[in-house]
Design goal:
about 120 residues; alpha+beta; GTP Cyclohydrolase I, domain 2; 4 helices
Length: about 120
């Protein structure tokens, strides 16, 4: 099994438990790790035989436009949408990071990592 990674996709989105977060918005980083059989594509050099990472990016972008209260909800929606729309996936791991969360303390980000 081969691994396709798409790292640090950045989105400005309106997710959060606090109402203000859903109005003001914040920056988010998304990492994907997609396990799939890539040998056919490697031999054929044909995009039709590959897991298209542009399609994966477009799916993530669409999910990031839908407001959520929790990072867990975003991660699950991304996983479900990838499996629904891209054939050949064996396993996906998604990491959703919220940069500079509104928490009383100093931190770069908070994140959730989920696999399916």
């Amino acid at each position: 099994m081969e691994i396709i990674e798409i790292n640090e996709m950045e989105f400005y989105a309106f997710h959060g438990h606090l109402k203000e977060e859903r109005v003001v918005g914040n920056r988010f980083l998304i990492d994907l790790k997609i396990e799939a059989d890539c040998l056919t594509a490697a031999k054929s050099d044909n995009l039709d035989d590959a897991v298209n990472y542009k399609d994966a990016y477009d799916i993530v972008k669409k999910q990031m436009k839908k407001k959520s209260h929790l990072l867990e909800n975003i991660a699950k929606r991304i996983l479900d949408a990838l499996y629904e729309n891209i054939k050949g996936i064996k396993k996906v791991t998604v990491k959703v990071q919220k940069l500079n969360p509104p928490i009383d303390g100093i931190m770069k980000s908070v994140s959730i990592t989920m696999s399916k």
